[in-house]
Every structure is written in structure tokens, then in C-alpha cells.
């Protein structure tokens, strides 16, 4: 339902009576009398997709929780609603490869991809959740059951659509509402014990004696895994604690801090740099703290007496820090992000920051068979040198080097099909190909491109996102143009992927360019993203600012439309 970005209208609050009616409908449909929205404020908006129109319901934070089609009374919970209320709907288990390669790419769940036994409620027409067998309580997709699943005890050899998918994690519904909520820690804890049980059951069938001898080792390993998972899923209090410690470090130890300084500079070049060493900036940042916004964070510590601010609303400047507070006097420094050891002293936390993009390739179709034929385990993602090494290994293993010219390869059917997509080319093109000309067509035809962003400070490399993102590496777009009325503006978009907050960015640009700024959305592209406008021709200034954040010019597209206009004679 949300394969393409839906067009949504403005949100409006539901009346209290309408909210109660909607909640009662949800209870009746799910047979859960105790279900509640958890908020007295529920909003609604109409949406229009490619093939359907309907209504989306959100919580007070504008996160989508339920939706329905216009001419259908059936309500669908989003995965967020399922996380907040476990056991809301029955669950169908599947394999991770089915989720990643098929469901997350827009396909339905086939019966052969499911894992019995099935919940008795999974009859035709039932709204259900889809979960990975390794995380059975964490719903990642929602759909409608198309077959009477409880009647199946085996699925091998069966055909047909088991569940028609209407919504999944990180689909266009999530993107249009900019959902960033993480699954609750308790679901992940349940996941660990459940997956452990599945593994133990498999071992029991294999050899009872072996299970007994290995049980202590498995338990010890499981406990370590559980501990690692708990550490990975930081609580709100933990995030607040780390950021507070970074503030104390900044005030007491950061010799590069000069006041007055902008709020954006204070956070990005001081607070973020002075977090404890090893902290993941994708997990610990102002957005994920209880303050949510930089302005709220700064005003809190102004009230506590640590800072003195000037400005109105979100446009704040730190004019003074208080080093006489007891917390600052008693503060003990620690290794910070980018600290390269005792030799670097306090400068380690303020090393130059750069952004790095790592391009990765996900094998599809024939590429999986090719990798398996090399007798190596199949991975989700590969770097280009790894694929090049696999090709060379395959050529050597199959003895495909041309005897007449060692720089050429006499490709076999497998490589021929991977290099040329069209069957006509496969039949007519020469099979003798220079080795140097093999890699790029193999990558282009048999792998999907992904990218992973990293922030590098000193010797520390911190991922900006939890997992690699699909598609080509992004470029920030800057356009200087003249609006109606001969007013020159500069627009900047597609910067959020680099973890640049629109409000902080606008505040910083406003000061740097000495011009008023506005925050809106792009109108020219199909996929809407945040866009910051500033008055005046400031393309070069903004590029310089982005360079200071570690983003080189090769990831910036700057178009000056004023240069193309000829002066009138």
C-alpha cells in the first residue's frame, strides 16, 4: 500500500468522541478489550497512494499508528502500534532472507516462506504481523492472511500467497512521517531467549548427549549476547547522562571552546566531540535524548546555572559558561570521541571531523549462485575489492585465463550471463573479454548498490546510521536562483542523510550568511525532504560551512541559475 510515497494532507485532531469510537473499533477488531492509544490526543489525515486512498491516524507526536482504506472498515495497525502493544495481532514467522530480499522490496509473503506451526487465529481475512523467526515478538510488517494457515503443518512444496503485505518497517509511510522510533528493549530481550530456545530444540533432535555437554557453553554465550544487546539498546536516561557528561567535559576541559558561539557549533563541534570514547553518535545525540531539541537542551542547563544564553526561540547563542558549579569543579575527565591516547592530550576530543561514504553491494539473483560456486559463505553485503577477489578466484578455479593473452578471460556461461543482461548479447558477443572489463558490468547487473556513512574524528570511526542505506550515495543540493520579484535566494536540500538537523542548520546559516532563513520541503523531487532557504546568493558560503562539517565538495551539487541569465541590452 505504501510502496510509493503517499500524498498526505495536514493533520487535524480527532474529537474526543471520535477518538473513543476509533479506539473501540480497534478493540473489537483485535479482540483486545484492554487496548488503548496511550494518549488523549489522536490526529488524522487523508492520504492518496497510487492505487488507493484512505485515512492515517497518528499519536500526539505525529507518528502513524493506524490506517484504513476509504471504502473498507478494516483498520490496520502500523508496526509502531504493534511494538507498543505486544500480542495485538497474531504473528506469522518467516526467515530473515525472505524479509530482506522480498517483503522489504514490496513482495507478498508466500506460503513456502512461512514457518509453521501457525496461530489458530490466522484464517483468511485476518490482519496479522510478520516477524523474523529470530525475533518472534518484533513485528516488522503487517498484512492480510490469504490462506487458512492453521490447516498447514508443512509448507515445503506448497504454493500461493500466504499474506498480502500492506505495510512494512521503513516503507514510504515511515519515510513521509519521518519515523525514527526504535523497538522497545523488552521485545529484543524476549527475542534473545526465544531464539536461544529454537537453537536448543534443534540441538536436542541432533544429539541429546551433545546438548547436555554444550548447554553450559551456550548459556554463557547467550548471557554475553544478551548483555551486549542490553548495552546496544540505551535507555533515555543513559542518553541524557552521556550528553550531560559531554557538557561538563566541554565546560571544564575543552580548551577550544570560545564564547560567544552558536548553538549549532556548540553541539556539533563540542558536545558531540566530547562524548565518551566509543559512543555511537547514531545512538547518542540530542534528538534521541529527553530534550529532543538543541534549544530545549540549552535552556535546561541555563536554568541549572551552567550556561548563559542570548536569543529568542531556537535562535540561541551561548555567551558564557559557568566553571564555578560544583559539578564542574569535581568533574573527572575521561577519554572522548577522537581521543588518540594520552599523547594527544585534550586536543584528541577536538580533532578534525570528516565524513566518509563506504559503498557496499548486495548480491541478487545470479550473483548468489556465483558466490556459492566459489565455496564461500554468502554475506548480505560486499565491498568492491571483495567481489573483484571472488571473480579472480572463480577465473582461476575454472581455468578461464586465455592461453593466447593472459590479460583476457575466456568467460563461461555463468560469467557471460552476469556480464550481458540481454540474451541476444549473450549469444552474439565474443567470449574473450579483457579481465579489466569484467568487474563493472558484473556489479551493475547482479548487485544492488548500498552505502554506509561514517563520521571520522581522529582515529575514531562512528557510523551515522545503524545499517547501510539502499541506493546511490547522496549529494547535498544547493541552488541559487531568482524568485518572482527579483528576489535572490539559495536553497539547500538532501542534507538530513548526513545527520544535519534542519533547525540547527537554518540557525547556523542565518548567522553565517546574515540573511533570514525558512525551513520547508522540496517541491521538485518525487521524494520530499527538508529544504532550508536563505536570502541572497550564498552558495559558496554554504559549501564552505559544509566542508567544515567534514562534507567534501564531491558530495555537493551546486547550481547557480543566476549565471545562465543574460543581461538585457
Automatic annotation (TrEMBL):
**Entry's InterPro entries?**
EIF2D (IPR039757), eIF2D_SUI1 (IPR039759), Pre-PUA (IPR041366), PUA-like_sf (IPR015947), PUA_eIF2d-like (IPR048248), SUI1 (IPR001950), SUI1_dom_sf (IPR036877), SWIB_eIF2D (IPR058886)
Q: Which PANTHER family match?
A: EUKARYOTIC TRANSLATION INITIATION FACTOR 2D
- Span of domain SUI1: 476-550
Chain intervals with Acidic residues compositional bias: 196-206
Q: Composition bias, kind Low complexity: at what positions? A: 186-195
Region: Disordered, residue numbers = 186-223
- The name this protein goes by in its record: Translation machinery-associated protein 64
Which superkingdom? Answer: Eukaryota
Query: Might you name a Gene Ontology BP term for this protein?
Result: rRNA processing
Where does the record place a coiled coil? none
Q: Which SUPFAM superfamilies match?
A: eIF1-like (SSF55159), PUA domain-like (SSF88697), SWIB/MDM2 domain (SSF47592)
Which stretches make up the DM2 domain? 359-445
- Organism, scientific name: Candida glabrata (strain ATCC 2001 / BCRC 20586 / JCM 3761 / NBRC 0622 / NRRL Y-65 / CBS 138) (Yeast)
Indicate the family of this protein: Belongs to the eIF2D family.
GO MF entries: RNA binding; translation initiation factor activity
Output compositional bias ranges, type Basic and acidic residues: 207-223
Amino acid at each position: 500500500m505504501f510502496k510509493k510515497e503517499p500524498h498526505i494532507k495536514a493533520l487535524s485532531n480527532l474529537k474526543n468522541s471520535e477518538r473513543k469510537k476509533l479506539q473501540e473499533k480497534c478493540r473489537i477488531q483485535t479482540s483486545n478489550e484492554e487496548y488503548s492509544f496511550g494518549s488523549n490526543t489522536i490526529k488524522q489525515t487523508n492520504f492518496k497512494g497510487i492505487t488507493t486512498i484512505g485515512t492515517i491516524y497518528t499519536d500526539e507526536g505525529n507518528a502513524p499508528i493506524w490506517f484504513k482504506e476509504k471504502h473498507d472498515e478494516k483498520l490496520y495497525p502500523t508496526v509502531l502500534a504493534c511494538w507498543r502493544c505486544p500480542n495485538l495481532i497474531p504473528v506469522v514467522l518467516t526467515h530473515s532472507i525472505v524479509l530482506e530480499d522480498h517483503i522489504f522490496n514490496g513482495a507478498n509473503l508466500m506460503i513456502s516462506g512461512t514457518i509453521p506451526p501457525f496461530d489458530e487465529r490466522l484464517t483468511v481475512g485476518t490482519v496479522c504481523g510478520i516477524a523474523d523467526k529470530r525475533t518472534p515478538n518484533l513485528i516488522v510488517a503487517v498484512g492480510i492472511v490469504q490462506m487458512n494457515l492453521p490447516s498447514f503443518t508443512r509448507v515445503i512444496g506448497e504454493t500461493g500467497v500466504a499474506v498480502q503485505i500492506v505495510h512494512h518497517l521503513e516503507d514510504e509511510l515511515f519515510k513521509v512521517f519521518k519515523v525514527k522510533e526504535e523497538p522497545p528493549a523488552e521485545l529484543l530481550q524476549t527475542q534473545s531467549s526465544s531464539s536461544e530456545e529454537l537453537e536448543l530444540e534443534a540441538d536436542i533432535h541432533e544429539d541429546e548427549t551433545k546438548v547436555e555437554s554444550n548447554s553450559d557453553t551456550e548459556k554463557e554465550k547467550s548471557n554475553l549476547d544478551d548483555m551486549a544487546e542490553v548495552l546496544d539498546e540505551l535507555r533515555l536516561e543513559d542518553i541524557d547522562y552521556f550528553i550531560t557528561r559531554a557538557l561538563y567535559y566541554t565546560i571544564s576541559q575543552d580548551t577550544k571552546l570560545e564564547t560567544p558561539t552558536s548553538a549549532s557549533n556548540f553541539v556539533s563541534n563540542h558536545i558531540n566531540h566530547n562524548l565518551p570514547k566509543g559512543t555511537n553518535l547514531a545512538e547518542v545525540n540530542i534528538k534521541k535524548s529527553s530534550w529532543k531539541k538543541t534549544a530545549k537542551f540549552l535552556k535546561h542547563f541555563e536554568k541549572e546555572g551552567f550556561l548563559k544564553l542570548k536569543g529568542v526561540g531556537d535562535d540561541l547563542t551561548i555567551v558564557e559558561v559557568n566553571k564555578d558549579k560544583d559539578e564542574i569543579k569535581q568533574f573527572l575527565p575521561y577519554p572522548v570521541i577522537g581521543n588518540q591516547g594520552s599523547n594527544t592530550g585534550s586536543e584528541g576530543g577536538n580533532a578534525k571531523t570528516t565524513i566518509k561514504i563506504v559503498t557496499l553491494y548486495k548480491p541478487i539473483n545470479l550473483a548468489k549462485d556465483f558466490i556459492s560456486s566459489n565455496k564461500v559463505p554468502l554475506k548480505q553485503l560486499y565491498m568492491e575489492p571483495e567481489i573483484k577477489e571472488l571473480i579472480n578466484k572463480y577465473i582461476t578455479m575454472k581455468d578461464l585465463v586465455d592461453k593466447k593473452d593472459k590479460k583476457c578471460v575466456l568467460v563461461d556461461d555463468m560469467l557471460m550471463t552476469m556480464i550481458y543482461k540481454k540474451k541476444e548479447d549473450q549469444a552474439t558477443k565474443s567470449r574473450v573479454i579483457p579481465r579489466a572489463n569484467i568487474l563493472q558490468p558484473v556489479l551493475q547487473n547482479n548487485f544492488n548498490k548500498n552505502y554506509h556513512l561514517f563520521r571520522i574524528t581522529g582515529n575514531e570511526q562512528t557510523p551515522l546510521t545503524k545499517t547501510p542505506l539502499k541506493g546511490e550515495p547522496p549529494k547535498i543540493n544547493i541552488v541559487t536562483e531568482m524568485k518572482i520579484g527579483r528576489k535572490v535566494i539559495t536553497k539547500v536540500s538532501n542534507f538530513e542523510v548526513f545527520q544535519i538537523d534542519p533547525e540547527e542548520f537554518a540557525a547556523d546559516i542565518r548567522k553565517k550568511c546574515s540573511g533570514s532563513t525558512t525551513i520547508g520541503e522540496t517541491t521538485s523531487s518525487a521524494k520530499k525532504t527538508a529544504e532550508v532557504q536563505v536570502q541572497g546568493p550564498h552558495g559558496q558560503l554554504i559549501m564552505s560551512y559544509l566542508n567544515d562539517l567534514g562534507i567534501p565538495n564531491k558530495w555537493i551539487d551546486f547550481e547557480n541559475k543566476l549565471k545562465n541569465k543574460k543581461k538585457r541590452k
